[in-house]
Design a protein that fits this description.
Layout (H helix, E strand, L loop, with lengths): L1 E5 L10 E6 L4 E6 L6 H6 L11 E5 L5 H4 L2 H6 L5 E4 L1 H28 L13 H8 L2 E3 L6 E3 L3 E7 L7 E7 L11 E5 L22 E5 L12 H14 L3 E5 L5 H14 L8 E4 L1 H12 L8 H4 L12 E3 L3 H6 L7 E5 L9 H8 L5 E5 L8 H6 L4 E4 L2 E4 L3 E4 L9 H9 L7 E5 L3 H15 L3 E2 L6 E3 L5
Parallel strand pairs: 3-4, 4-5, 5-6, 10-11, 11-20, 12-15, 12-16, 13-14, 13-15, 16-19, 20-21
Antiparallel strand pairs: 1-2, 1-22, 2-3, 7-8, 8-9, 9-10, 17-18
Helix pairs in contact: 4-5, 4-8, 6-7
The structure holds zinc ion.
Zinc ion binds next to loops.
Length: about 475
């Protein structure tokens, strides 16, 4: 027996969690993410998982993003005592992400209690910094292209997914003993989040291996990214900000997106395409992650010698400042344009960006620039869709700022890039499960794969269980 249960990212883009169960009832969880977005989604994080937590012997992570790792402290609080596997760089990035998440959980609970806008009295954090420190002690590092044998005749091997620092696809294999019916081995390929065909500086994703079952993300299953180079797109907005002496406020994911923006701004300033303006990175997490690029030179194409030369390092230039303390962050409230503030989180769901938005959204001389996917019901999505006023921490904020979106900075493959990845799989799988996408995009992708490749494609529902040994 080998069953696969879809515990998240089934009809949504967040909460990635899969459970592969063997005949012993134990098994492996692949990714362990938080649901993010509107209240209904966030409240799903409080529901107990429909599995026995003691059955989870191991967790194998594709990458460090919160929607793939953020449930881990909660899993541990619910009784998980196994091991958590990831690449070394994922471990380093995950430390920032999980600590930040615990901090935000606490802050949200405090805000909710202070302003009395929670339905729970008192509002509690999903987990605390102590829980996060405890779960970080369960992590183990596994390199790409090295097979790791797990209990119950399961094994896995990582390959590069090119999505963020450390990101991987996972090929999981289950062998069956005679006592289990002697079924032929089943290989299950988890795409993880798939990166771009031409990343800004990350090492290109690898071609996928052959597999019997494929679970593939479908975030942009119905969209094509604009064929404009990301720095060209940014150039247009920067020219506008400089001409109107605006402050450009960029909610950016702290991992890779913030660094990509810094990298592209460096290029524009270095090549004198625009005059140099002050750029502030106001996110302790983005600051910490930026330092990891020197530690992992094999994961990106920024030459090491360049990174060590003052003035030449594309992730550090004279007008770039990393703010440290909350006081430094508050001082930015007085900042006059033209200037750039890069702050997290990328979907404006928490972090220092919230204070910048409270301060700057009512100002028509502000440009708020979104640079990536905005999940349903997030503040980012509301602003992108043209809301005239929004509620932040229970306060009604008028939106007079100009809202813009950079379309080509996405760290996710678009429809064509997903199709190209699928076509590289050496032989058609017996079944393709589309996950990590809202139902509209994944339905479009399903129909395209069926038409172009003739594969058997499924759109699993949340908590659905599929017996993989019956798929032929
Ligand atoms: Zn991701």
């Amino acid at each position: 027996m080998l069953s696969l249960q879809f515990l998240g990212a089934a009809g949504q883009v967040t909460g990635s969690k899969y459970f592969l169960r063997t005949a012993t009832h134990r098994g492996v969880m692949v990714d362990c993410g938080l649901f993010q977005g509107g209240r209904e989604l966030r409240e799903m994080n409080w529901n107990p998982l429909p599995i026995q937590i003691s059955d989870v012997a191991n967790v194998v992570l594709t990458h460090a993003h919160l929607d793939h790792t953020g449930y881990l402290p909660r899993l541990m609080k619910s009784g998980f005592k196994g091991q958590i596997w990831c690449t070394s760089s994922t471990y380093d990035v995950a430390q920032f992400i999980l600590r930040d998440s615990a901090h935000l959980q606490q802050e949200d609970a405090l805000h909710a209690n202070h302003h009395h806008f929670s339905r729970h009295k008192p509002a509690l954090p999903l987990y605390t910094p102590e829980d996060t420190e405890a779960v970080l002690g369960l992590f183990h590092v596994q390199d790409r292209h090295k097979k790791k044998i797990l209990p119950d005749d399961l094994s896995f091997e990582y390959s590069n997914a090119g999505h963020i620092l450390g990101s991987c696809s996972i090929l999981m294999e289950k062998r069956f003993a005679e006592s289990e019916g002697g079924h032929a081995p089943i290989r299950v390929l988890f795409s993880g989040d798939l990166g771009r065909e031409k990343p800004i500086y990350l090492v290109h994703r690898e071609a996928p291996p052959a597999a019997d079952i494929v679970i593939c993300e479908s975030t942009y299953g119905d969209k094509l990214h604009h064929p404009v180079a990301p720095s060209d797109e940014l150039l247009g907005i920067m020219k506008e900000a400089i001409a109107s002496k605006s402050v450009l406020v960029i909610p950016a994911f702290a991992v890779d997106r913030a660094q990509e923006l810094i990298f592209c701004l460096h290029e524009l300033f270095r090549d004198n395409q625009i005059p140099s303006v002050p750029v502030f990175v106001d996110s302790p997490m983005a600051t910490g992650v930026t330092a990891l690029y020197e530690k992992y030179p094999d994961e990106h194409c920024i030459p090491c010698d360049l990174m060590q030369q003052p003035g030449e390092n594309p992730l550090s230039f004279p007008s770039l400042k990393f703010t440290q303390t909350p006081e430094d962050s508050k001082h930015l409230n007085e900042l006059k344009g033209p200037a750039v503030i890069i702050s997290a989180s990328g979907m404006a769901t928490g972090g220092r960006i919230m204070h910048h938005l409270i301060n700057r959204l009512p100002d028509p001389n502000t440009i708020v620039l979104f640079t990536g996917y905005q999940a349903e019901e997030t503040l980012g999505r509301l602003l992108m869709e043209g809301a005239h006023s929004v509620s932040i921490f229970g306060e009604n904020i008028k939106v007079a700022a100009r809202i813009q979106t950079l379309t080509n900075f996405s760290a996710h493959s678009d429809q064509r890039e997903i199709m190209d990845w699928l076509k590289q799989i050496p032989a058609p799988p017996k079944r393709l499960f589309l996950t990590h996408g809202e139902d509209g995009p994944r339905k479009v992708l399903k129909e395209l794969v069926e038409k172009e490749l003739g594969w058997n494609v499924a759109m699993p529902k949340l908590n659905e269980i599929v017996d993989l040994t019956t798929i032929s």
